[in-house]
Inverse folding.
């Protein structure tokens, strides 16, 4: 974790805070001192999660206040992550600042991110669409992976549970000369014991057989310029259902079972240009396929997401300016009505490019007041122009108190069948009565931090209130007609 010692001055008297002032990335994209950031960012290191060992990020994040991983299906253990009470699709999951976790992978992919990859996790609760675009309405979870240059040469972690959940993490690094290092990590998770403690003839937890391979390269360059590149592959075989189910019943109605095969490839990286100004390009790509049966109902889907972003950062006087351009292209296809043409006769996959631009100014008005103004413009060929303004203000009268206010708007393009599990697993007919336009919201939150010195330690009191207003929230009607889901 990046950190720096800091002395603070308040009311003309020098105060030794004696604490570590962390450097955070998520709230403003660039590295900034946590105490100076007008956006409240929470940091959780790997040591925090080691206090309660878990095999993956989905389970580990449950220890963070205000974040709730939720299982939406007791049969196949579909899960998502809620922030400030908002459902999982409103939470953006990043890996090294990249939108790697696409909508299809939120259904099962979150449990496929092993803790062995994690250096730290940064959490922003509240609106972040002005920087990150669609899906960042409730907040952002940025999973920052280990740096190959500083990672240990070899590490291993083996864990099991009383339910025979077995998890193995092995990683090693090697160098190519003085300026390049590679980190290679292997994760294997297996849970194959059928358990039915409540005697309902259904598995109490989904059986899983999962492997993940991760390789990351970091490069040391002149003038501390950054460069990195990473690849990850994930395969998972997941099943839940009646106790007597086995693979020969896959796709039949004779014995009920939900069987999901997942294949996923990710690539992402960062490059700082060799120019006098600070110009950085980030890029990512993910390819995700799902082959599944919910009883006799097949669900086959493929999603490909390409993303590239270039931003420029310049500091002068009391202003820290940032401007950037982004391009994101999403391809999604499945065998549901969600990707049929308007007449319902031909397949029409979603192929959605979104071009965006953003600008942001962080203005340190005085030593006590910091103001952040941001604006983002996105253009989608179907939904056209989307505007996302942002305002953040921090008041800190001394090193021990900080009040932050954040306001912004958000939007999200809905992928119904990747997110609404009931639409896949139920026997109801799905009726879409009108075009599904992007969801829109206005978000605001107030955060107060009080640091209380206690000898050589520091107690932290952190309180937040938040409010979200939706102008076009898509909610399924499950009650009007028992045999239908109406949207």
């Amino acid at each position: 974790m990046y950190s720096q010692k800091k002395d603070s001055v308040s009311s003309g008297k020098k105060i030794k805070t004696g604490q570590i002032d962390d450097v955070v990335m998520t709230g403003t994209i660039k590295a900034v001192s946590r105490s100076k950031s007008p956006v409240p960012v929470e940091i959780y290191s790997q040591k925090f999660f080691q206090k309660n060992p878990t095999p993956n990020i989905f389970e580990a994040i449950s220890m963070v206040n205000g974040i709730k991983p939720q299982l939406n299906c007791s049969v196949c253990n579909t899960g998502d992550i809620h922030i400030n009470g908002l459902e999982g699709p409103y939470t953006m999951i990043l890996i090294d600042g990249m939108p790697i976790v696409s909508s299809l992978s939120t259904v099962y992919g979150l449990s496929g991110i092993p803790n062995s990859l994690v250096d730290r996790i940064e959490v922003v609760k509240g609106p972040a669409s002005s920087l990150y675009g669609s899906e960042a309405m409730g907040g952002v979870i940025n999973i920052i992976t280990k740096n190959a240059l500083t990672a240990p040469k070899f590490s291993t972690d083996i864990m099991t549970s009383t339910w025979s959940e077995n998890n193995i993490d092995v990683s090693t690094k090697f160098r190519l000369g003085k300026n390049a290092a590679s980190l290679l990590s292997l994760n294997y998770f297996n849970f194959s014991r059928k358990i039915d403690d409540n005697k309902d003839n259904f598995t109490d937890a989904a059986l899983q057989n999962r492997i993940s391979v991760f390789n990351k390269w970091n490069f040391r360059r002149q003038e501390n310029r950054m460069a990195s590149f990473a690849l990850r592959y994930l395969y998972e075989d997941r099943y839940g259902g009646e106790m007597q189910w086995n693979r020969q019943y896959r796709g039949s109605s004779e014995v009920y079972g939900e069987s999901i095969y997942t294949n996923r490839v990710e690539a992402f990286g960062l490059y700082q240009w060799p120019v006098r100004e600070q110009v950085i390009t980030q890029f990512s790509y993910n390819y995700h396929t799902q082959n599944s049966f919910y009883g006799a109902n097949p669900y086959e889907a493929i999603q490909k997401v390409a993303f590239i972003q270039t931003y420029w950062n310049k500091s002068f006087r009391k202003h820290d300016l940032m401007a950037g351009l982004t391009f994101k292209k999403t391809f999604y296809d499945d065998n549901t009505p969600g990707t049929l043409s308007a007449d319902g006769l031909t397949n029409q996959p979603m192929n959605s490019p979104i071009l965006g631009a953003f600008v942001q100014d962080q203005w340190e008005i005085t030593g006590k007041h910091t103001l952040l103004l941001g604006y983002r413009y996105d253009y989608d060929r179907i939904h056209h122009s989307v505007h996302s303004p942002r305002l953040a203000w921090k008041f800190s009268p001394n090193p021990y108190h900080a009040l932050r206010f954040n306001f912004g708007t958000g939007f999200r393009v809905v992928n119904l069948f990747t997110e609404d599990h009931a639409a896949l697993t139920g026997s109801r007919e799905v009726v879409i009565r009108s075009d599904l336009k992007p969801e829109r919201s206005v978000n605001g939150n107030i955060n107060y931090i009080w640091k209380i010195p206690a000898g050589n330690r520091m107690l932290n009191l952190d309180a937040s209130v938040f409010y979200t207003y939706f102008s076009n929230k898509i909610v399924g009607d499950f009650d009007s007609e028992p045999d239908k889901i109406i949207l």
